[in-house]
Amino acid sequence: MTTAISVEAIGIDKRFGGFTALDAVSLKVAKGSMHFLLGENGAGKSTLVKCLLGYYRPDAGSFLVDGREVEISRPADADALGLGMVYQHFTLVPAMTVAENLVMSRADVPAVINWAQERVALDAFMRRMPFQVPLDAEVGSLAAGERQKTEILKQLYLERRLLVLDEPTSVLTPQEAEEMLGLVRGLAHSGAITAIVISHKLKEVAKFADEVTVLRRGRRTGGGPAPVLTPADMTAMMIGEPQAPSEPERLGAPEPAPRLELRGVTTVGDQGRAGLEIGSLAVRPREIVGIAGVSGNGQATLVEVLGGQRAPSGGQVLVEGAPYDGSRDLAQARAVRVLPEEPLRNGCVPRMSVTENLNLRGFDRDAGGARCFWLDRGGMVARARRLIGGYRVRAPSAEVPIGVLSGGNVQRCVLARELDGEVRLLIVANPCFGLDVKAVAEVRARIMAARNAGAAVLLVSEDFDEILELADRILVMHGGRVVHETPGPGADAQSIGAHMLGSH
Amino acid sequence: MDAITTVLVAMLGGALRVSTPFLFVSLGECLTERAGRINLGNEGVMVFGAMIAYATSYETGSPWLGVLVAAGCGMLIGGLHGLVCGMRGVNDVAMGIAIMLAGTGLAFFFGKPYVQPSAPLLPNIPLGGWADSPQLQNALAVSPLFFLGLAGAFAMAWMFRATRMGLRIRIVGESEDAARALGLPVERMRFLATAAGSGLAGIGGAFLSLCYPASWNEGLSSGQGLMAVALVVFARWNPVHCITAALLFGAAGALGPSLQTIGITWGYYLFYAAPYAVTLAILVATVQPGRTLKGMPGELSIGR
């Protein structure tokens, strides 16, 4: 096993043009500790670690490793010092096996690989590790948690002595997240590695952090030993206000008659992944049904079916008791709205302007709901202006292509469009992905408001806390089926997590 | 010998002969696609390779030198494709069609003087010495290029499995992000894989003019370079499966001529269409709507 190193950053400045990403940020990470780097999107967390790993060159400041000043100007310099990073998006090759991925990550791969010999070495390496993954499995067939473990194993295999983990739990179930962070902390406390974890989940910080540094808008706003800091302290340091945004209020009870009903809906499976097989699923007016599940268990397919992007191979989708196929006419007639995953790809025309994209739902109907031939440019511009203002979309102008906006702003645009006007059925997938704390609170409040106004809401989310907060009823999907159902308020996170992992 | 045996023997011989160019061009296409790029230009490369191999053999008297020159020219043309596709915003399918037309056109332009003269051909290896029937002896006279192709297929499979270069090519073809994270020179590797793939296609062309049908004229290649794309899909991007695919297509291509040997002359053109019908049938049978293809390199532009 390797031994951990300590790292210190002193007065790091980084500017991109006129924008100051980091302003004299200092950070001290002790040997063998688990250090959390907290902050909202755009606070500078990623920029700071990218400077440390040689992807960016800081404009001022220096780094110390084990107390000595070091020059890190290229990623290779960071490699040589034993600094490694586990990215939020995976960097493993899905179509190759774990063994192939590990061997190829090394800098000194021989021209001809002697697999027999490599296998012996890999098996010996695996035996030394506190957790295992199957060496012969294709990475693409592993669950997200296993892939994350493989990423960490890869860093250990490369004999890294300091690991930076960029939001490592964002794609994991609660159990997987706990297990993974526990393992990393175990490695750190055994003196094998030092870990820097980028996160914005206060629960994880409370449970696993030895020390915390909080960034806001490129400055260090606080930090210290984790046990001393309360969640309120950390929230205040993160968003500059002492109060965390309050949870939206739930008003009224669901109506009895279902507005959306799925009966025996199936789709064809793909690449070893099971297709959908939903016996029955109903969403009632004034009800939020949350669908929890590990990504890749059919949630995306379900949203595609409901949004009309994919035809089911069997079964029935009913909206207000009548068959529904997601066509434009039916969606308009029944006031069905969809906020899909990756809204830029699934819900926008990237090269059309913000104004045009904001009018995609209704540009072909006049005020009375009848089809119109000529576009009402004036009305489109007015509606766009109203939505941009109401949802605080930050765009250089309403006439730029929507593709140039940041992910968060695209999300707001699509949400604004989908929630505008009468909404009787709302399908939302990961609505808060990539938004900061304030925006998240605002989006959740709007979804709750739609519910309170009488909409039936189907919420598919990989953020478990979001489902716990919003859902009236929680369904768990695994392998394309609904495997568990429980009332939302007071739901048991542990048991839901177990169902997400397939034990039921 | 009864009629069925005659047809089968003729098909065996035909399969061994007709499959060789399919094998080379599909191996070349396989290599290029595993690196994440499509090369439709291999059709043009084959025609040019056929012409230059024949011309070289005629001018120097050495058919093997012809094969080498065809491979070299293939690499040059493929290199051009690779270079241009490496530029920003270039679509490899459109560029491939341009290369296909350019290669064919150049071959016709420079090949005019070589349509008439007869060049020394590559000798076959007579494996049928033990047989009494002349048909069988004829069928088992196999070109050395066929064995070279077999060896090439197994070598390529080994390369993808157990060499640094092979695994790097796979990484580049599967995930550009991962390749960049590992610091691999993505564009250079694709360039090299495209050039090497076209080199193999060039050898396939040389077979056409120096082994079978063994002459140079403008109707020599009938879309083998394009069908290689379908063959590679059928072979699921596995070089060893390319052998099966090529033999199957070769046998289908030999169906028409084999039936002629026993006097069935009706439906001549229909039987000549067999390989294309097989292409269609196999693609339809192996591709299902709503599913992605297993084994397809992730960076292939038809897959995105």
From TrEMBL, chain A:
Species for this entry: Dankookia rubra
Segments forming domain ABC transporter: 7-242, 260-504
A Pfam family that the UniProt record links to this protein: ABC_tran
Listed PANTHER family: CARBOHYDRATE TRANSPORT ATP-BINDING PROTEIN MG119-RELATED, GUANOSINE IMPORT ATP-BINDING PROTEIN NUPO
Name this protein carries in UniProt: ABC transporter ATP-binding protein
Keywords for this protein: ATP-binding, Nucleotide-binding
Any one GO MF annotation of this record: ATP binding
Signal peptide positions on this chain: none
InterPro entries named among the record's database cross-references: AAA+_ATPase, ABC_carbohydrate_import_ATPase, ABC_transporter-like_ATP-bd, P-loop_NTPase
The keyword Nucleotide-binding is annotated on this UniProt entry: yes
From TrEMBL, chain B:
Recorded topology in the membrane: Multi-pass membrane protein
GO molecular function, one term: transmembrane transporter activity
Top-level taxon of origin: Bacteria
Protein name stated in the entry: ABC transporter permease
UniProt entry keywords in alphabetical sequence: Cell membrane, Membrane, Transmembrane, Transmembrane helix
Naturally occurring in which organism (per UniProt): Dankookia rubra
Entry's Gene Ontology cellular component terms: plasma membrane
Lineage, highest ranks first: Bacteria, Pseudomonadati, Pseudomonadota, Alphaproteobacteria, Acetobacterales
A Pfam short name: BPD_transp_2
